[in-house]
Design goal:
This protein has about 375 residues and is of the alpha+beta class. Among the domains are: about 140 residues, Probable tRNA modification gtpase trme, domain 1 (Gyrase A, domain 2, 2-Layer Sandwich); about 90 residues, Aminomethyltransferase beta-barrel domains (Alpha-Beta Plaits, 2-Layer Sandwich), CATH 3.30.70.1400. Helix content is about 20%, strand content about 30%. The strands form four sheets. It has a six-stranded mixed beta sheet. Strands 15-18-17-16-19-20 form a six-stranded antiparallel beta barrel. A hairpin with a 6-residue loop joins strand 17 and strand 18. The longest helix has 11 residues. The protein is globular and about 60 Å long. The termini are far apart. This is Aminomethyltransferase. Keywords: Aminotransferase, Transferase. The glycine cleavage system is composed of four proteins: P, T, L and H. It catalyses: N(6)-[(R)-S(8)-aminomethyldihydrolipoyl]-L-lysyl-[protein] + (6S)-5,6,7,8-tetrahydrofolate = N(6)-[(R)-dihydrolipoyl]-L-lysyl-[protein] + (6R)-5,10-methylene-5,6,7,8-tetrahydrofolate + NH4(+). Pfam families: GCV_T (PF01571), GCV_T_C (PF08669).
């Protein structure tokens, strides 16, 4: 059933054909699962998974001052980015709070493509427009020009190689190249949100069905599965990757969230939020994002209070939690005071009135054998 005022991606009919269960997410009708959350999760860890991410938004930045403008508008040092590279970055308020986390592609001379979370596209676009005065640059929401398909997992390159002339072995992590996929023009990026190396494929909406079907059909023997939002969430949580609206909000800064590595300390240009972030870097933050692990089969969930076992006082909150399909025990991310942030520190989580003992651990919870950085390289 189509819900009024809820958008559908160009692949909606494919998801229905595959028997997907749908949910509404950020104003879009999206596949939650196809057959089984566990089966889809396992496919990405052991073979490959195919995701429809066409709900994500794209904003194009062009003009002679495009890089200089982004230096001002984002924490990113865009002027230092080579063409065909990508960076994970943040757009912050003057007080350092995060409006969204973004991926920025340097697609050509004086040209960048920003990828924003579906729920935040309008906010990001409006904020960029508000910050552009004085720069010879232009912003344009080009979300309707793109469908986004992601192929993630250890066999992703093997599957994709049959469909593209691009040199996949030479495509560095967090790089992108204009190429063809399944005979269609595409921006092919080595990026993802699962903890596995994989690829994100930006194509015209009219080409999405053909690319999706070809990858699914040819990858069947390699174990590729279509993957819904439910498994996407457990995959990113195992990989220790934050989700906007859970770990990341306008009420916390990148330094609260452990994303200080994405905030250049030596960036020459001034940018919105710099003063506040530099002050937090000097003084520290009142809470920090940590990983938690437990035993048994009961999982903490977003919103559960974190309790200091010694005082019995609620001192933090869980932002995401799940029984890890790969590891077989509960994992979570939570904001806690710095005094409780050291790995090995025990904490209690109040799960509907019952205390669940968990231990602070370093993130990510899951790391593939050939893993480097989980979110983005320098």
């Amino acid at each position: 059933m189509v819900v009024p005022n809820v958008r559908e991606t160009p692949l909606a009919s494919e998801h229905a054909r595959l028997g997907a269960t749908f949910t509404t997410f950020a104003g879009w009708r999206m596949p939650l699962r196809y057959v089984s959350d566990l089966r889809e999760h396992e496919a990405v860890r052991t073979a490959a998974g195919l995701f429809d991410l066409s709900h994500m938004g794209q904003i194009e930045i062009t003009g002679p001052d495009a890089a200089r403008f982004l230096d001002h508008a984002l924490v990113l040092d865009a002027s230092a980015m080579p063409v065909d590279r990508a960076r994970y970055t943040l757009i912050c308020t003057a007080s350092g709070g995060m409006l969204d986390d973004l991926v920025v592609y340097h697609t050509g001379e004086d040209q960048f493509l920003i990828v924003a979370n579906a729920a935040n596209v309008a906010t990001v676009s409006a904020e960029l427009d508000a910050r552009i005065a004085g720069f010879d640059a232009r912003t344009r929401d080009v979300s309707d020009r793109y469908a986004l398909i992601s192929l993630q997992g250890p066999r992703a390159a093997e599957i994709l190689a049959e469909h593209t002339p691009a040199d996949l072995n030479g495509l560095r992590y967090y790089s992108a190249v204009a190429s063809r996929v399944a005979g269609r023009e595409a921006l092919l990026a080595r990026t993802g949100y699962t903890g596995e190396l994989g690829f994100e494929i930006y194509v015209a909406p009219d080409d999405a069905t053909a690319v999706w079907a070809d990858l699914l059909r040819s990858g069947e023997s390699a174990g590729v599965q279509p993957v819904g939002l439910a498994a996407r969430d457990t995959l990113r949580l195992e990989a220790g990757m934050p989700l906007y609206g859970n770990e990341l909000t306008v009420d916390v800064t990148p330094l609260h969230a452990g994303l200080g590595w994405a905030v250049p300390a030596d960036k020459a240009a001034d940018y919105v939020g710099r003063k506040a972030l530099e002050e937090y870097r000097q003084s520290g933050t009142p809470s920090v994002l940590v990983g938690l692990e437990g035993t048994g089969r009961r999982a903490a969930r977003a919103g559960n209070p974190v309790v200091d076992p010694e005082s019995g006082a609620a001192v933090g909150r869980v932002t995401s939690g799940v029984l890890s399909p790969t590891l077989g025990h509960p994992i979570a991310m939570a904001y806690v005071p710095p005094a409780l942030a050291e790995p090995g520190t025990p904490v209690d989580v109040d799960v509907r009135g019952s205390m669940l003992r968990m231990t602070v651990v370093a993130k990510p919870f899951y790391r593939r054998a050939d893993a480097r950085r989980q979110i983005a390289p320098a």
